[in-house]
Amino acid sequence: MTSLVTARGVSKHFGPVRAVDNVSFEIEKGRILGLIGPNGAGKTTLLKALLGLTDCDGDLSVLGLDPFRQRKKLMQNICFIADVAVLPRWIKVSQVLDYVEAIHPNFSRSRAEELLQQTKIKKDSKVKELSKGMVTQLHLSIIMAIDAKLLVLDEPTLGLDILFRKEFYANLLNDYFDEERTILITTHQVEEIENLLTDIMFINDGKILLDSSMDLLSEKYIELMASGEGAQKARGLGPIAESEMFGKSVMLFEGVSREHLEGLGEIRIPSVADLFVAKIKEARK
Amino acid sequence: MINHYLALVRRELWEHRSIWVTPLAIASVVTLGTLTALVFSGKFAQELDVAIFAAQNLAGDTERRVVLTGFFFVSSQLFLLGLGVLTIFYALDSLYAERKDKSILFWRSLPVTDAETVISKLLTAVVLIPAVAIVGIIGTHLLNLIVTSIWVSMKGGDAGTLIWGSVPFLDNWLAMAIAIFGMAIWMSPFLGWFLFVSAYTKRSPLLMAFLPLVLIPMLEGIFARSTHFAEAVWGRGAKIPLFADMDIEAFFEDGPPEITKEMVSLLAHMDLGRFFTSIDTWLGVIVCALLTTAAIYVRRFRDES
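Predict the joint structure of the above. Result:
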C-alpha cells in the first residue's frame, strides 16, 4: 500500500484553542475515507492543513509534498470542493472552463463538456442564473475532468435536496473513482455515504477517536439488542454505550467477540451514525 | 509562464467589465461632443466657410498642429481621469470581492499561488488598464478625425491638408502612452496600498483606504505642525518628474512668443531620463512592492473560515 497522506503529531492552535491536537494518521491510495466529527471538532482545520490553506505544527506530507509550502504543485494533483467554496456568481460556464483549462495542466476540457452535456447547464449561462444544485453539478463536472490523485470534499452536498445528493455520489463513484484515486469526504449526513466508504475516521475536540477501515469496523464493533436476563449478562461485558428502544436495551460493544454475545439477544452491525454518537459520548465522559 | 499570467489577467477582464466599458463610454461621450459641435456649427455656415478657407490658405502647418494637438490632449485627459478613477475602484475591489462572494476557496483550489494572483491584479492595474486607455485614446482620435474629415469635405475643405496632413500622430500618441504608463508607475505606491487594503479589510475598502490618508495629515498638522505626509501623498500626482522644465520667463521676454513645431510637440516636453533617474520614482516602486508583498501575505495567511 502507498500512503498518499502521512500525518505525524500534527497540531494547529488558535491562541489557547487546539483545533487539531497532535493527530497522526495515514491515508492510502485508492481509498474513500470519511472524516466525521461534530461542529467545531477540527475537521475543516485538518482539511485546510492537508490542502495547504493553513500552516500547522508537526509533520504533514501530502503526495510527498509539504502542503503549505508547496501548495501550487500540490494543487495540480488535488481537487477540493468546500462547503463555503462557491463558484463566483459573475462568471459564465464557458469562462470557468476556459480559465481552468488555461491554468490547470491536468484538466480535460472535452471530459468536462461531456459531463456537462448530461446536465441542463448551458455554456453561456452565468453561475448566478443556475440553481444551487446546478452549481454543484458544474463544480463536480470540473473536478471530475481533472486527473487528480486526491479529491477532498468538505460537506459537498450541503443545502442540496436528496435527488441531487444521491446523483452527486453516484456520479462520483461511477464516473470518477478508481484504484488510482483517493477521496476524502466530510459530511454531517453520514448515513448517505457510509456505504461508499472504505475507511472512516472520527474526530472530536481536535483528537482522533477512531481510525479504521470499514471492514475492520464490522469485526470490532457489535450492536446487541437484548432484554431481561440477556441484557443483564451483556451489561457485564462492558458495553461502550447503551440506549433504550422499544422497551429493549441496545448496547454497543467494542472488541467483544461475537461468540460471547450470541444467545444474549439480537446481534447487528452498528451503523456509523450510532457508533459515532457512542464514541463521542464516551469521549465526553 | 506568460500564458499563465495572460489567463489570470483575462479573468480580471471578465470580472471587471468596467475596464473596457469605461473607455467605450468616454469614446462615445467625446464623439457625441464632436458630432454635437459639428451639427450646431451649421448655424454659422458663412463664418465656417471663411474659417475653413483661412485655415487652408492663411494658417500655417504649425497653427493647425496646435489646434489638433489641443483636441488630442483634452480628449486624452478625459481617458486619464476616467481610467484613473476606475483603477482606484478596481484595485480596492480586486482582493475584497473574492472574499465577499466567498469564491476565494474556489480560486485557491486551483494551482495558482497567492503571489501570482496578487501580481496579476497589480499587472492589470499598471499595464492592462493603461494599455486599454491608450487603445481607447487612439480609437477615439481616429474616429473623431474621420467624422471631422467627412464634415470638412462636405464644407468644401481639403481634409487631407487640414486634418490628416497636420496631425502629429506618432508624437501625440507616443507622448500619451509615455504619460499614461509613467503616471501608472509614479502612482504605483497607491496601487500597492489599495491592493493591501483590499486584501486586509473586512468591510468598506474605499473608506478604509482613504481614512488614513485623510486622518494622518490632519493629526500631523495638529501635533507636529508639519505637512510632510500630506505633501507626499496628496501632492505626489503633480510632482511627476516626467516633463522637462520650460523657461516661461524667457518664453515671453521678447514680446509675443513665436510658436514653433518643436513647441507643439508633446514628446519634446518629456524627459524620460529625469523620470527614471528620480529617486522618488524608485522609492514609489519600492513602496508598491512592499505593500503588494503585504497583500500577498494577508491573502496567504488569512483564515477564511
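Chain A touches chain B at residues 14, 44-45, 48, 51, 53-55, 71-73, 75-76, 79-82, 84-92, 95, 98-100, 102-105, 139 (CB under 8 Å).
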